Amino acid sequence: MSKEAMDENKKIKQRNAFLRDNNGKEMSSNEGVKISDDSNSLKAGDRGPTLLEDFLMREKLSHFDRERIPERVVHARGYGAYGEFELYESLEELTMAHFLQDPGVKTPLFVRFSEVAGSKGVNETNRDVRGFSVKFYTEEGNFDLVGNNIPIFFIQDGVKFPDLIHALKPEPNNEIPQGSTAHDTFWDFIANNQESAAMVMWIMSDRTIPRSFRMMQGFGVHTFRLVNKEGKSRFVKFHWRPVLGMHSFVWDEAQKLGGADPDFHRRDLWENINAGNFAEFELGIQVLEEADEFKFDFDILDATKLWPEEDIPVRIIGKMTINQNVENVFAETEQSAFHPGNIVRGIDFSNDPLLQGRLFSYTDTQLARVGTNYQELPINRPVCPVHNNQRDGASRYTIDRGRVAYHDNSLANNSPYTVPGTKGGFVTYPSTVQGLKERKTAPSFLDHFSQARLFWNSMTGVERSHIIQALTFELGKVKDVSIRQQVVDMLGNISTELATILARELGVAVPNVAESSVTKSSPALSMGNTVFSPKTLRVGVIVGEGFDGPSTQYILNELKGAGLRPVIVHERLGVVHGTEGVELKVDDSFLTGSPLVYDGLFVVGGQNQDEYFQKYTRSYAIETYNHFKPIGATPTGAALIQPAGIIGKPGVIVEQQPAAFAEQFIQAMTQQRFWNRM
User: Fold this and answer.
1) Both 147 and 218 in a single domain?
2) Half-sphere exposure (Cβ direction) of 181: Cα atoms closer than 13 Å
3) Cα 93 from chain centroid?
4) What is the pTM of this model?
5) Residues 523 and 538 in one domain
6) pLDDT tens digits, one per residue of 532-577
7) What is the DSSP letter of 397?
8) Angle at Cα 676 formed by Cα 672 and Cα 677, nearest 5°?
9) Residues with Cβ < 8 Å from 27, sequence gap 6 or more?
10) Domain range for residue 510?
11) φ and ψ of 84, to 5 deg
12) From residue 527, how far is each of 202, 205, 246, 449, 472 by CA, in Å?
């Protein structure tokens, strides 16, 4: 053997020494300890808090938290802005939290919206859960409400979070697909972790392709506590409701828009804030007395379950207004560090095992991703004074005076000193903890299908058809037929009708399982029961040279008066000229614009309509029509789109008289989609 061959053989052996095949092997820790249970963290009783001594959970989460540096492992693609929160009514009877005492007081905040699955460069319109995290800079310290645009989650215990993310991320052998769950490993996880059944229904709904950050709900997901000055505790869940209503794309539109404008969501937020169209959300709470903890047919600590609003109403308590863009995305948005463990006096934790895992993981993650002193960065620093004996560490900003850096002490008169709870110090609510130390899922967590069925029952016909299409697409991308079969079998527990349709579409057997017996529905879960408003919606206005100046200008003024945002589209950039001296500045050319980025289309046309103008106008109209959006046209514009065969169809309005047309078109834009074209 030649020297070159020997060297190459040596390299291969060195590489093979680091290869590990896990297939068919016993599970063990990185220290070689065999693991008997990898699905449950160690708790004090099956519904008790997670114990810090769980060295197996800490090792698993610590390793996971450091797997990708410096980009976030999840929620990497995000965008943030500043705002303020104004309380509507005092919550003194519920909580000691200072920022929830006085109506009218405005608390500064920072919000970060994000996607869960994709990397930092992924398209923003992919189907994905959206992060919805708010940092309140209160006078008593930072309170972080770290949530999503869906009220539940995939898993019940934080120890399984690394497994979930490993499954939904691109498959490690080929790094495919990016920012999508339409692949084998994700659905294999779902099929074998059926606590995710309800979440599957939510992520396959239109909730995961939102029209904008400004038009999606937000949820704290977990069960927290509110504690008042008398020491009385109540359970609470947090809700954000968009003032503009909750609206989404259709799937074909979302896919194409990812190519036309992969930054669509951040551009929408940035431009609207700059234009003074501030994003507004109302904060609501569901409050449950401790005595009612076991009153329901679900466990209130189970993060895969929601609290139906018909049983526990949402009380609206205040409004968030997002009104200021960042100056530097890296310094502010990317270095922002959120943590569900950042709470203030009057807010406390429950024994939710997923929340308990996050309380460890988020601190660990921020220390690894941002650095030891991440809390000193301007975006993360509280507005109230900070004094303690923590010192040094990487990137230390604070210059501490004096020689004493410990507690208790006499050299500094035992300062900084602790503050009694009666004078504002944080005091943990003294909830009772009892039970054997054990790794076990509580029996009350074992019903995985009732709320999935509740969600299905609550959907409109259009929403159900979209869920079916989403599941057909996602599972159609799964190459392993056995995984498809397992998932369809699981869905049979939710709906026989759904499973039967999918079995036919996916080429698998119809499952022989009994569907859930739940018959009730929750109107609050349907996006059909939301607010509809024309405000801030974009109208693509296709204008040709020689257009009817006075009539067009009148209609545009009416649209603007209703809160719509007309975008002038022409063959080329510059100025387009109409009759009687009316001129319009062109915002988009046919090539720089796209019907995908407008919420509706108004075809004005003009006197000089060459073949190029006609071709693109019809193309814009057909794309808009196929996505169920409103289309308006002047008589001249109607002649342009006549060959498309859409005149007279629902949501297609032709001008007869400008005032009447403007009123009808504004109504159509308010409706937003015309599903009866289907």
Assistant:
1) yes
2) 26
3) 31
4) 0.92
5) no
6) 999 999 999 999 999 999 999 999 999 999 999 999 999 999 999 9
7) -
8) 90
9) 34, 35, 38
10) 449-528
11) -150, 155
12) 11, 10, 6, 21, 21
